[in-house]
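Example (one chain per record):
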Amino acid sequence: MNLITPVLAISTSSHALSFAWKHLTKEGFCTILALLVVSIFSWTVIISKARQLIRARRMSKKFYTAYRSTRDPLDIYRRKEEFDGAPAYSLYHTGAEEAEYHLKNNPITIDTVKPVVPGISTQAQTDILARSITTKISHASFDSVRVALERAASDEALSLEKGMIVLSTAVAGGPFIGLFGTVWGVMETFSGIGIANAASLNAMAPGVAAALLATVAGLSVAIPAMFAYNYMVTTIRAITQELDSFSNEYATQLEHKYVDNRAIADEIRSALQAGLNRPALVAPGGTPEIEGAVEPAFS
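Predicted structure:
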């Protein structure tokens, strides 16, 4: 008996739907047609967005594993490894391109930093890799890298949220569209009963059943969209937070490895050494001429 009851319930519900569909009015049909269009858009977004998020989570895990397995923040970019579909990789690639551009066009060549006082090492000597890199960029150039990272993080967040407005519209608008069709159908049913002056259950049942079919259609559109929207919003929020954390981590490592963080005294010392090593200009008379010297105003 318990096995037969669900089968009877399904057959009864299908009979009710077919009965309501037979007595559907033109207004109710237009309402259900509009809900069908909303449902098609909603399921298109659900399927495409689910595939995007699943791929983003899978490729992001692979990228984070590869990135944290190396000490050089530009190693993956220079090896030309790709992790298509990972938002963090798109952000990483944008920052790496900007950093490489400044390393080639605005480089700062420095010697290995040596401690001023014997036995006391500077911050650059705490990392062998950072100490071995002699071509770096200035803080002004690094500001451009930070701006590029912020722009890339914003673009990836917008890409993840693209299409979610369709699901929110289906969740909020689906029941109201169905309710509109139901109210319209009930209004026509009661107006027909009033005109015929015959208030009976047999006269009311077909119109009310057909009107309630619009509400069923509206809920059928809104319920799947609601569950998908809640799940996807939570997933997108998690990916976005991971992206912000990685952006800060990546910027910090770039600054430590590839930004000239020498003290002002070291920079002045390097500039003076570069000036002393510059060859002196020779005057036409054969005497060395100091660049930038000013001739006396009197003889």
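Caption: The first strand starts at residue 108 and ends at 109.
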